[in-house]
Amino acid sequence: MKKAYELACEAKPTARQIEWQQTEFYALISYGMPVFTGKQYGDGFTPPTVFWPEEMNTDLWCETAVKAGMNGIVFTCKHYDGFCLWPTAFTDYSIKNSNWLDGDGDLVKMVAESCKKYGLKFGVYIAPWDRHEKSYGSGKEYDDYFCNLLTELLSNYGDIFCVWLDGVCGADERKVQKYDWGRYYKLIRELQPNAVISFRGPDVRWCGNEKGVTRQQEWSSVPAYLGVNEDGERAGTPPKKQSQLMSLDIGSRKAIKKDTEFIWYPCEVSVPLHDSWFFDENEKYSAKTKDKLLKLYYRTVGNNSCLMLGLAPNKRGEFDDVDNQILSAFGYDLKVMFGYNLLTECVDITASSELSPLYSAENCKTKELSKCWRPAENDKKPEIIVTLNEDDIFDKIVLSENIINGQHVEEFEIFYLTEKGKWKKLYEGNLIGYKHICCVEATKTQKLKFVFNEYRTYLEISHISIN
User: Fold this and answer.
1) Is 398 helix (H, G, I), strand (E, B) or coil?
2) Distance between CA 443 and CA 445 in Å, rounded?
3) Which domains does the chain carry?
């Protein structure tokens, strides 16, 4: 009988999950009626004529995202108030009845086209909770309505990389709708088969908070009960104590030792740049500093997760100057810190063993997941030694596993060769997954050694970057 950690290794990502993981860092742009009412959650009764951005230019949104180092944008097409930011045929409570562009505007289309122009992936956020639609709470009648909205969004705006389904249900309302998640998922799979379903979906796991607080180890291969299946039901048998769903440890050998069912359910971290998701004049100076964003980036993208940063345009449809300055400075720093990999011009890269010539350590120079180094099966403590052209200084090391074949690494160490010719430990870590950023003290050396002490069944390293 296989042990739990061996079963966990058999959970592997779909093509859509890999594509999403490679997006790494993207924006959630929150825009809609709340920007004009000053309330984060609209009541669904604000007249459409209140929506009237003065200087809407979605190209500038995308320009800001690119400067920040982002690779995509998810746009809030419909929030809890039910107001649709595209001219839907299924409700009058939409942008077509606003005074903006005389009712002829389509903000979803504008964002989608700007994303394509700037080489950004486009995703849609839509909330099933609807405080305007009269059929909400009726069951199938509302599900029909919601699926009609989904069909429009997923049919008319090109390729979509992410459908972000907000799982909030208005429990404080007189009407409560039991969402037909399985029907929603089936429709998304039919119309946008390459899109991940995030937050309330079977593809991407929410980290559990909006503060950017992550677990020390964010495993992608986790017990099935943490996720949902294509029918919208829990994918496995949940533990007796529901609190375990939010446990600080959901993937270690100790945590999963009694589990028998596993799924690939990678982590997404969603955090607003300001204190709130939608623009609030009273919070315009609450933006996170460049240094706070960098720390957030390390513990998300650098910890086997993706980061979705919430951006909030103002009433005019613009980002405030402070936001633009912070995001541009942050993106510049990312380019400086990770733009050049010393490994690409190293003199030599050798391994303690290789399974075959196809699994050469030289593959670690590439960024292709399928090209990787894999040691021989009898190599119980495999290692790689990198020799640079000359002594050089760095303070970041990035490691990536070949997640096409799952997640395996549990413990590793990095050493550097001192001037006296001795190996000195520089860093020790646990999981790697898609990406692990090792922040170290500025170090000058010509040789580095990577030792992999613990891993599950086998080991495949796809990429190493020394920055």
Assistant:
1) strand
2) 6
3) 4-338 (3.20.20.80), 342-466 (2.60.120.260)
pLDDT at 419 over 60: yes
- The number of residues in the chain equals 467
Q: Give the count of beta carbons closer than 10 Å to the beta carbon of residue 244.
A: 15
User: Residue 31: left (phi > 0), alpha (psi -120 to 50), or beta?
Assistant: beta
210-242 as b/e, with b when 16 or more CB fall inside 10 Å? eebebbebbbbbbbbbbbbeeebeebbeeeeee
With tokens 């740049």, the residue in question is 273
Structure tokens belonging to residue 308: 């979705």
Q: Express as a percent the part of the chain with pLDDT over 70.
A: 97
Phi, psi at 162, each rounded to 5°:
-150, 130
d(CA 399, CA 302): 9
Question: Dihedral (C-alpha) 65, 68, 71, 77: value to the nearest 10 degrees?
Answer: -30
Counting other chains too, the contacts that 333-341 makes at CB distance below 8 Å and 24 or more residues apart are 333/290, 333/294, 334/69, 334/297, 335/69, 337/396, 337/467, 338/396, 338/398, 338/465, 338/467, 339/467, 340/467, 341/465, 341/466, 341/467
Q: Quick one: pLDDT at residue 386?
A: 98
Condensed to tens digits (0 to 9), the pLDDT of residues 153-185 reads 999 999 999 999 998 887 555 678 999 999 999
Nearest residue to 284 (alpha-carbon basis) of 310, 322, 317: 322
| Spatial CA neighbour of 348 closest among 368, 362, 336 | 362
Task: Give per-residue pLDDT as tens, 238-297.
Answer: 766 554 556 899 999 999 999 999 999 999 999 999 999 999 998 888 999 999 999 999
Asked whether the beta carbons of 90 and 125 are under 8 A apart, the reply is no
* C-alpha to C-alpha distance for 125 and 73, rounded to whole angstroms: 10
Better-predicted residue by pLDDT, 382 or 169: 382
Q: How far apart (Å, rounded) are the C-alpha atoms in residues 273 and 138?
A: 37
- Residue 1, classified by CB atoms within 10 Å of its CB into exposed (0-12), middle (13-18) or buried (19+), is exposed
Rg of the chain (C-alpha set): 24
Helices 321-338, 58-67: inter-axial angle, 10-degree rounding = 40
- Does residue 237 register a pLDDT over 80? no
Residue 345 has pLDDT above 70, yes or no: yes
pLDDT at 34: 96
Note the pLDDT of residue 244.
56
